[in-house]
Design goal:
The protein has 551 residues and is α/β, with parallel strands linked by helices. The protein contains 17 helices and 15 strands. It has a domain of 190 residues: Rossmann fold (3-Layer(aba) Sandwich). The longest helix is centred in the middle third of the chain and has 67 residues. Keywords: ATP-binding, Coiled coil, DNA damage, DNA repair, Nucleotide-binding.
Length: 551
């Protein structure tokens, strides 16, 4: 229920704090006093769009806050889905700056208008004669039957199973599509894999082969250079090694007379030994350097294969080819394991579908049993509120198709006039008739469901006298189960309220403000008497007002 509504800087409202009570709250006031302004402010925290022209003071921001007790509304799942903090007293806030920028909050957490609207629809139901009513929707019509049939637990079980069924069925469809796609590609993947596997790829092979190719291609030049180096060291007339040997011998002769040459002698001897080793290695390398045309051809063929594979797969190294081969292998292995997964998901989907169908069948049977009661009770209330010839027929049909609400399709057929065949609501019911029909239906389901706070915005247009009194009685009855706020011009309805608020305008300095105040019992008598006879009610009107309030 709405426990408090705070409005700051909106239209003709400077600052207003409203605390509706439980039960039936009545709002009265002259035409143009600002009742619709209060509803407009309330609609902002229900997710409606805002315009800066609504500001009382254009230099300040507009702030609307609604405090709601939501203990009975079973909204924990909604808060969890939206990642919001659940509080029994939940606060919806809307802030609109002078430049038109808007921010919305739920329990001080910023939210989008879509989220605010989704939550607001579960907390407040504004019911206007001229509004497009939810009564025409299949969801509302099924909800009516489920409420009367007390199907909450059964419907919750069905929705849980249906959610699991949809998730599993979606997973199965995606897997089947994946399998179909994989089967289409399987032969090609197998060909690619076989080609790469047959190549027996080795990491870094390409680099080694390119080095070997370079050596084999220049074998004669390499051999010629090595022979030249060996000749310079060993075989020519003044070979390097011979000259070094002679230099060592000469130093050794001089060392006998100049001992400090010993270190130079040893260094030169070490150099001689190192150069002799180098010469031997050069000779060995030269002997093993051969021009092998057959091996060069083999290396060229291998490199050509590697280049072709790289070009085909749009990569530039063997390691990337190995990665592609491994990926293809995984895909081929996955194809073989998908069949098992398909079978598992198929069985699970069938099981969940069967479970859903069982719950849906129970829902259908329960709804069928509730139809007659709904028809009778609604017509009974409609008779009381001045529509004695009303007929409500509820058609329920089932199909094999599973939906969020079960397997049922529903239609409310209605006739308000004698001799008129019942037809769909949107074809036969006027705004006033729909308002009273909605009133009758909600008065019925209020006894079994925790409905949002309902606001009746002047739905009493076109009725008076005894009928108005009966409408007031219905609202009073509804208020035993839920919070009702009724904006009315009829004294018969106003007299039924447990709390009565007067909306009025007051001229303050250079501005007109809309205000609202709760009326004491004596003030209620005067207000209702004025509704009966005008601004200055006589004794008869005051007495009549007292009688209406006395019930």
């Amino acid at each position: 229920m709405l426990s408090r509504l705070s409005i700051k800087n909106y239209a003709l409202i400077d600052e207003l704090d409203i605390q509706p009570a439980k039960g039936l709250n009545i709002l009265t006031g002259e035409t143009g006093a600002g009742k619709s302004i209060i509803l407009g402010a309330l609609s902002l925290i229900l997710g409606q769009r805002a315009e800066s022209k609504y500001f009382y003071n254009q230099a300040q921001k507009c702030v609307i806050e609604g405090f709601f007790n939501i203990a009975d509304y079973r909204l924990q799942d909604f808060f969890e889905e939206q990642d919001l903090d659940y509080e029994v007293e939940t606060i919806l806030r809307r802030e609109i700056s002078a430049d038109g920028k808007s921010r919305a909050f739920v329990n001080d957490t910023p939210v989008t208008l879509t989220t605010l609207k989704a939550l607001g629809e579960r907390l407040i139901d504004i019911h206007s004669q001229h509004a497009t009513l939810e009564i025409n929707t299949e969801d509302f019509q099924l909800m009516t039957l489920d409420s009367v049939a007390e199907n909450n637990t059964l419907l919750s079980q069905y929705k849980t199973s249906f959610k699991q069924y949809k998730q599993t069925n979606t997973a199965l469809k995606e897997l089947l599509e994946e399998v179909k796609q994989a089967q289409t590609e399987a032969d090609y993947h197998q060909f690619l894999f076989d080609e790469l596997a047959e190549a027996k790829l080795v990491a870094n092979e390409q680099e080694l082969l390119e080095q070997e190719q370079n050596q084999l291609s220049h074998a004669e030049e390499i051999k010629r250079s090595l022979l030249g180096a060996n000749f310079a060291l060993n075989d020519q007339e003044q070979a390097t090694i011979s000259l070094l040997k002679e230099a060592v011998s000469q130093l050794q002769q001089a060392e006998r007379y100049l001992p400090n040459l010993h270190e130079l002698t040893e260094r030169l001897q070490s150099s001689l030994i190192e150069i002799k080793d180098i010469a031997e290695e050069i000779e060995k390398t030269e002997q093993h350097t051969l021009f092998d045309e057959e091996r060069l051809s083999t290396v060229n063929d291998r490199l050509s294969l590697l280049f072709q594979l790289q070009q085909k797969h749009h990569v530039d190294n063997v390691s990337a080819l190995i990665f592609i081969k491994d990926d293809l292998e995984n895909k081929l292995l996955k194809n073989s394991s998908n069949d098992e997964q398909v079978e598992k998901l198929t069985l699970e989907t069938a099981k969940l579908k069967k479970e859903c169908e069982a719950f849906a069948h129970q829902l259908t049977e329960s709804r069928k049993k509730a139809i007659q009661m709904v028809q009778q009770e609604v017509v009974k209330v409609l008779t009381e509120v001045g529509m004695p010839n009303s007929i409500l027929q509820i058609e329920l049909s089932s199909s094999e198709h599973l939906r969020n609400s079960g397997q049922d399709a529903i239609r409310f057929l209605f006739s308000a006039n004698k001799g008129q065949e019942p037809q769909p609501l949107n074809k036969v019911a006027s705004g006033g008739e729909l308002s009273r029909l909605m009133l009758a239906i909600k008065s019925l389901i209020a006894k079994t469901s925790a409905l949002p706070t309902i606001i009746f915005d002047e739905i009493d247009t076109g009725i008076s006298g005894e009928v108005a009194l009966k409408v007031g009685n219905v609202m009073e009855s509804m208020a035993n189960y839920m919070q009702v706020i009724a904006i009315t011009h009829l004294p018969q309805i106003a007299s039924k309220g447990q709390s009565h608020y007067q909306v009025y305008k007051a001229d303050e300095q250079e501005k007109t403000r809309t205000n609202m105040r709760k009326l004491a019992q004596g003030e209620r008598i005067v207000e209702i008497a004025q509704m009966l006879s005008g601004l200055n009610p006589g004794e008869a009107a005051l007495q009549h007002a007292k009688e209406l309030l006395a019930g």
